[in-house]
Amino acid sequence: MLALRILLGFSGGFLFPASYSLIANWAVPTERGKFVGALIGGSIGTFITWSLCGLLIESFGWEWGFYAFGIFALLWTIIWWFLVYDCPEVHPLISASEKEYICDGIKITKKGNVSPPIRQMLTSVPVLSLCVMSFGTGWGVYFIITAAPNYLANALGFRITATGVLSGVIYLLRSICNFLFGYLGDIALKRKLLSLRVLRKVASIFSHVIPGLLLVILAIPAFSSTVYLTIIITAMAINGFVTLSSGANGYDLTNNFIAQLGGLVTSLITFAGIISPIITAYFTKYNEVHVEAWQPVFYISSSVLVASGLQFIIFGSTEIQPWNEIKETVRERERERGRESEREQL
User: Fold this and answer.
1) Model pTM?
2) Under the phi-then-psi rule, with left for phi > 0, alpha for psi from -120 to 50, and beta for the rest, what region is 324?
3) Within the chain, what is the greatest distance between any pair of CA atoms?
4) Where are the transmembrane segments (predicted)?
5) d(CA 128, CA 135)
6) What are the tens digits of pLDDT across the range 172-219?
7) In terms of Cα–Cα distance, which of 103, 102, 83, 101 is closest to 93?
8) Coil, strand or helix: which one is 279?
9) Whether 312 contacts 245, CB under 8 Å
10) How far apart are alpha carbons 29 and 218 in whole angstroms?
11) For residues 156 and 115, what is the distance between their CA atoms, to the nearest angstrom?
């Protein structure tokens, strides 16, 4: 069982980098918000799985918790195999007008098996800024989803059933907001209500800074249960703006190496999701019923979210980076300039 779980986790690691690359090849810049929202909003599947698993196990036995979703995954894989292609140019079912629309809006220059410029990527200030913000994303989301219900139940005396329902609501609400805010961001770009740079910076305030400040309020044991629930739900709802901040910023920086950058970002989000519960357990292991033991955890998580959002406002970028250019493409442009210069001299 352990080996199968490890294999499952390893194989799932390919999903997000592949999805990043697929979105880069198919979504024009003014429509990426809804695509990224759908990708990040996949946590709605967790909500559905949790809801259905209980019913399946109660009705047919625990095995069907595995059988049902395994069968669904196989059916989905078959559909994906026949309908999904790497890019519009090779899809046999897409119309000529749609293909032209997508290809004109996306400029992918990567050809063949080109090694990613790892050193340039890891020393790029905008990439490092995105990495820091993505780490903050993972920390904040996993902290609220895992620690907040425990805090409500153990320190504030909420009923276990209420915190369980809250966990499900958080997943569902954030998934809806991910897609909704992504869709609204696309509209803002299409109608030129905001520039891409302003949109990303404003979104980072809502996705990171404001939720981080709300966490400080949770550490104060002076409010009613309604206030605490409202704060948690509000924090996760507006964190849905992550679709327009860290979720989409990688596409601004590179389209040729988005899979590699997406893999790095996803790893940092997951790493933050591992570290956050460890830090929480360290402070609350023996005193999880005391509010005072939880306060440092909330202050740390608040600082991570706020700092990661503010640094992106300062250092983040929406410009395609120089290392995105393929060397062969650069040489071709230089040759073309040389030819034009020769023609002018003649």
Assistant:
1) 0.81
2) alpha
3) 86
4) 6-28, 35-58, 64-85, 125-145, 157-181, 202-220, 226-245, 257-284, 296-315
5) 11
6) 888 888 889 999 999 999 899 999 999 999 999 999 999 999 998 888
7) 83
8) helix
9) yes
10) 37
11) 53
Q: Go through the domains of the chain in sequence order and give each one's CATH number.
A: 16-99+117-320 (1.20.1250.20)
For residues 23 and 105, the answer to whether their CB atoms sit within 8 Å is no
Q: What angle do CA 262, 264, 268 make, to 5 degrees?
A: 115
- On whether the CB atoms of residues 194 and 188 are closer than 8 A, the answer is yes
User: What are the tens digits of pLDDT across the range 286-341?
Assistant: 776 777 888 899 999 999 999 999 999 999 999 999 998 876 554 455 445 555 55
Tokens of 77: 């894989």
- The enclosing H or E element of 105 equals helix 96-105
> With left for phi above 0 and alpha for psi between -120 and 50, is residue 61 left, alpha or beta?
left
Kindly state the tokens that stand for 185: 């961001």
**Cβ–Cβ < 8 Å for 192, 120:** no
The amino acid at 166: L
